[in-house]
């Protein structure tokens, strides 16, 4: 485990340097390409309830156009919300991630940036919002499951053995624990046959070439179903069959 964590730290440091060299013009252009490509993916077109990460100002795909498109299409759009873990115990994370629903475009546009420049939900509004792990105090939260999760990351590649997309996150484990809890909830609702689709969105520079090595993964790291890159390429099991005509 120590060697795995060291390998992940090393790759994150290398990717930080690499991504600092990507111009903002390139980020904007690649984000537009990812948005256009996503709109051809059946898993997105047909999804009724999706979660979308909201972007840092630099160094990753910008998702503003995706959020606006999803809301305009009538999808239920959920965004990440980090909070103290209500369940305490040995080995459990101190902070966890839930997904909370945006009410509409005006609600989205009212979000204020956090210290990383990421638009964020006001914690005071959370109890009144539909959310994945909410209780009876939020509309329909008890039965809420996602169809699609659009995920960020630091680096990606594909497993040569099975083509699955491997993802290196920022090291906090928020998405892995969220997806674990989502699987448990789906099972409790008898929905194991309808797993959530996991789709990464990334700059082309975030996809490792063979000369750069491989994404180090452990048993708790969740592989993705697909990855859309800034050049329009779709990687993983999702490519190329799950696109619309």
From TrEMBL:
- Recorded E.C. number(s)? 6.3.3.2
Positions annotated to bind ATP:
8-12, 167-175
Cellular compartments per GO CC: mitochondrion
Q: Which reaction does it catalyse?
A: (6S)-5-formyl-5,6,7,8-tetrahydrofolate + ATP = (6R)-5,10-methenyltetrahydrofolate + ADP + phosphate
Q: Where does substrate bind?
A: 54, 60
User: Would you say which domain of life the source belongs to?
Assistant: Eukaryota
Q: Which GO terms describe its molecular function?
A: 5-formyltetrahydrofolate cyclo-ligase activity; ATP binding
Alphabetized UniProt keyword annotations: ATP-binding, Nucleotide-binding
Q: Name one GO biological process term.
A: folic acid-containing compound biosynthetic process
Tell me which PANTHER family the record gives. Answer: 5-FORMYLTETRAHYDROFOLATE CYCLO-LIGASE (PTHR23407:SF1), ATPASE INHIBITOR/5-FORMYLTETRAHYDROFOLATE CYCLO-LIGASE (PTHR23407)
What family does the Swiss-Prot or TrEMBL record give for this protein?
A: Belongs to the 5-formyltetrahydrofolate cyclo-ligase family.
Name of the protein in its database record: 5-formyltetrahydrofolate cyclo-ligase
Q: Which lineage ranks, top first, belong to the organism behind this chain?
A: Eukaryota, Fungi, Dikarya, Ascomycota, Pezizomycotina
């Amino acid at each position: 485990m120590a060697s795995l964590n060291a390998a992940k730290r090393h790759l994150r440091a290398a990717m930080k340097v690499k991504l600092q060299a990507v111009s903002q013009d390139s980020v904007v252009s690649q984000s537009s390409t990812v948005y256009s490509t996503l709109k051809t993916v059946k898993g997105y077109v047909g999804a009724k309830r999706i979660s979308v990460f909201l972007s840092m100002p630099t160094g990753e795909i910008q998702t503003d156009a995706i959020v606006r498109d999803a809301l305009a299409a009538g999808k239920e759009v959920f965004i990440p919300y980090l909070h103290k873990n209500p369940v305490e115990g040995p080995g459990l994370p101190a902070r966890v991630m839930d997904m909370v629903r945006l009410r509409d475009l005006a609600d989205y546009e009212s979000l204020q940036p956090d210290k990383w420049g990421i638009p964020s939900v006001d914690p005071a509004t959370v109890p009144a919002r539909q959310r994945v792990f909410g209780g009876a105090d939020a509309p329909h939260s008890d039965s809420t499951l996602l169809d699609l999760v659009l995920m960020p990351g630091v680096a990606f590649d594909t497993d040569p053995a099975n083509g699955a997309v491997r993802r290196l996150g920022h090291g906090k484990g928020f998405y892995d624990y969220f997806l674990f809890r989502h699987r448990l909830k789906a099972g409790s609702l008898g929905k194991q046959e309808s797993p959530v689709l996991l789709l990464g969105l990334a700059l082309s520079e975030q996809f490792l070439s063979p000369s750069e090595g491989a994404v180090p993964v452990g048993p708790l790291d969740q592989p993705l179903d697909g990855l859309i890159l800034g050049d329009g390429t779709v990687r993983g099991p999702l490519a190329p069959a799950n696109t619309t005509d």
